[in-house]
Amino acid sequence: MTLKANEIKVGDTYSEEVCRNLSRTQIVQYAGASGDYNPVHTDQLYTSEIAGYPSVFAHGMLSMGMTGKMLTNYVGHGRLTSFGVRFTSQVFPGATLTATATVTGLREEGGENFVDLDVSTTDEDGTEVVKGTASARIDA
Amino acid sequence: MAVDRFPIEAGHVMMFARSIGDADEIYYNEDYARSTEIGNIPAPPTFVQAGAQFDPDYFLRPRIGQEWFGSAKGPTGITQRSGSGGGSGGGGGGGGLHAEQHYVYHKQLKVGDVLSATTKPGKSWEKQGRRGGKLMFSESVTEYRDQAGELVVTATSVGVRTERPATSS
Q1: In a domain, A42, yes or no
Q2: For the segment A31-49, what is each residue's pLDDT rounded down to a tens digit?
Q3: Domain range summary for chain B, segments of one domain joined by +
Q4: Cα A71 to the chain's mean position, in Å?
Q5: Is this complex's ipTM strictly greater than 0.85?
Q6: Please, which residues bridge with residue A87 across strands?
Q7: For every residue of B42-90, which 3-state class applies, written as one string?
Q8: Min Cα separation A18/chain B (Å)
Q9: Does the first or last residue of chain B, that is N or C, have fewer Cβ atoms within 10 Å of its Cβ?
Q10: What percent helix, strand, coil does chain A show, rounded to 5?
Q11: Å from A103 to nearest chain B CA?
């Protein structure tokens, strides 16, 4: 599934719920797969008593990874040329996240077509947790 | 991160896809993946982060035979404090928090590729936090190259250290 330049326009949006009621176990899965075992993500005792946070929280890269899933579903695999985000708020267990891409530009370069996107992921309260941009090569 | 050899393996991609909740068949079924435009199992867009598994010096992985700063019976496994603070403060021993991450994709990364990675420091800057306290940002730029020496992904990571634990409302 790939996007076609003649089927989208600036202002179009695509949204996906990328996580519902985020479990501590999913954060453990991400720690294991990514190799980032920082205990502030999985170890409540350490996090509350030593690190001084109220609760363990998701890796920023887990939120970005879930946001990236929305992007590959929208633009297709092998199409992204860039993807960059800021982590604007911490994500805690129980979060439900919705990722949205908004078309900000369509361009042609060297005979190929590209789409530019604003990317935003928000939690169940509407707080933005990931904010950024992405670009992808699309079909004519 | 300096990684000599980061092989992109199907089982690792499967575990990573599960961890981000991505049910796309392309990450789980090699026959299906071969029938797609890419022709093999692709790596998800943020997968290179998992190169940490292949970094022998990665400090956020327990080292065999050494104390780990996360909890054991008590809240930290560090039994002897050497000098100041140890695992306390800022990002909780994790070297601060991750503020930004940017990827530029030059080629599609696939199962079977073997990457190497080198990291250089980028810019650094300071900002006054909203609740007082200084925020110290620093950038690092990692280039991932494949078995042919071709640039596959350029990753720019921005970390932030705070004078006290950051909390979001």
Answers
A1: no
A2: 999 999 999 999 999 999 9
A3: 3-58+89-162
A4: 8
A5: yes
A6: A130
A7: ECCCCHHHHHHHHCCCCCCCCCCCCCCCCCCCCCCCCCCCCCCCCCCCC
A8: 7
A9: C
A10: 30, 35, 35
A11: 19
